[in-house]
Amino acid sequence: MTAQAVETGDLATVIGLEVHVQLETDTKIFCGCSTDVGDDEPNTHTCPVCLGLPGALPVVNEGAVEAAVKVGKAIDATIPEETNFHRKNYYYPDLPKNFQITQYDAPVCQDGELEFSVEGERRSVSVRRAHLEEDPGSLQHKGGSIDTADYTLVDYNRAGTPLMEIVTEPDFRSPDEVRSFLAKLTEVLEYLGIFDATRDGSLRVDANLSIVEGEEVAADGSIGEEALESANRTEVKNISSHKGAEKALAYEETRQRNAIQRGRVVEQETRHWDESKGVTLSMRSKEEEKDYRYFREADLPPLKVSDWKERLSIPELPDARRERFREEYGLDEESADKLTSTKEVADFFEDVAERFDPGLAATWVADELLGELNYRDMAITDVDDRFDEIERLVELVAEDEITTKNARETVLREMLDDGDAPTEIVDREDLGKTSGDEVRQAVEEAIEENPDAVADYHDGDDGAINFLVGQVMGKTGGSADPGDVNQSLREELDG
Ligand SMILES: Nc1ncnc2c1ncn2[C@@H]1O[C@H](COP(=O)(O)OP(=O)(O)OP(=O)(O)O)[C@@H](O)[C@H]1O
Ligand SMILES: [Mg+2]
Ligand SMILES: [Mg+2]
């Protein structure tokens, strides 16, 4: 972690994350039930295995393990010779077996690292471990929230969805770093093609926060093991978005700092993030590891994964792609950032850049398209079935058939708002660029009708030309190119 100035006598904020991400596989991690649950009726995607019925035997889904190994490659983690599964015992209605199959002493990934940037500064966070586990079912609290509901229903459709828990070192020093890290992490997972950020509940974060004395922080920003262990931390659960993580942690940071400044002790406990009220609430005192009575899952044999890292390939990741875009297409930092923000955007940009000029492609994808999508609260995935039409629009501009202004302000906007094809809009709105003859005629008329402006121009008043350009544009319904008009006028007036 990059150094951050901490004055003696100050308090430092320390944050570590446990990020749970659902891995995209067709079937659940230990049975053949589909993970494509959508809005289907509760408990319709279940079987004896994910319902935890006695005697049912789990079989590991190789696709889930492969996805986890890809994550390991992406964060440069150590993949062990052999990985295995444990039972984590606890009683809660979302877990029909009363234990969760998870990993304990041989997780599939250990000691990784992820770089990200916060306001232009590079940071790096160590990943302690990342392990596979099964998602529990989901609870629906009826007539209130978790603490006030009249009753609660359980849906096991989610039970057994492959989950990866990524545990970071307590390397974060502020809530905004966490938000940037989560954005980068999901970007990488999406590039790997194993994660769908748009799926409800696909990302859930447990955020641990403690406050330590400023003098415990070394010049390089690191904090000694002992200080970290002895600090009382809270673990905030029920966070399901990047923004939620930042808000929950900012709340928790203030709450703990206030307590310390008033001479009170911060309880070590688990807290619940109440998104609608914007507060964290005490749930229970923190379980100790011994409470879980971890033991080996005897129904699943250990898996030899030592050579999987070599066997599995991963695509070019965002950082590498960003660098390549800068070199290969001569993009500035901001465009390269925007164009690699998701794999879909990057792939689409490369398609367009191969057909047309890369600079034009960058302007149209990074500025025009993403700008208009953003304005409409849309994502690139909302238009991925219309990439051909968007390319056609770029083509119309590249071949000089319509003006940039009309393409931007009329065609693209109407395409997004009304769903029409670009050529349809061009015909309907009569946006086809005015031909040379028409422009020449409009130029002659404008000169004819405005002798005063012409005289001003000849007297050296260069501003008069702008007036005349405006007149010509008016005559051609805005479909002439202003630069061409300017040039024709000068030729006509000077010649
Ligand atoms: N002093 C601290 N302040 C804030 N976070 C800390 C501190 N010390 C450790 N952490 C973080 O706490 C988390 C510990 O997670 P881990 O899964 O290992 O244990 P756990 O939370 O006790 O177990 P469980 O998985 O049952 O919740 C890590 O993300 C780590 O970075
Ligand atoms: Mg944990
Ligand atoms: Mg935890």
Describe the structure.
It is an enzyme of class 6 (ligase). Residues 475-495 are annotated as: Disordered. One of its GO terms (biological process) is translation. InterPro entries: Asn/Gln-tRNA_amidoTrfase_suB/E, Asn/Gln-tRNA_Trfase_suB/E_cat, Asn/Gln_amidotransferase, Asn/Gln_tRNA_amidoTrase-B-like, GatB, GatB_C_1, GatB_Yqey_C_2, Gln-tRNA_amidoTrfase_suB_CS. This is Aspartyl/glutamyl-tRNA(Asn/Gln) amidotransferase subunit B. The chain has 495 residues and is α+β, with helices and mostly antiparallel strands. The protein has 3 domains: 11-311, no CATH class; 318-428, no CATH class; 436-494, Arc Repressor Mutant, subunit A. The protein is built from 16 helices and 15 strands. Strands 5-6-9-1-10-11-12-13 form an 8-stranded mixed sheet. Helix 13 (436-449) crosses helix 16. The longest helix has 20 residues, at 242-261. The protein is elongated. The relative contact order is 0.10. The mean pLDDT is 92. The structure holds adenosine-5'-triphosphate and magnesium ion (2 copies). Residues 18, 206, 235 line the site of one magnesium ion.
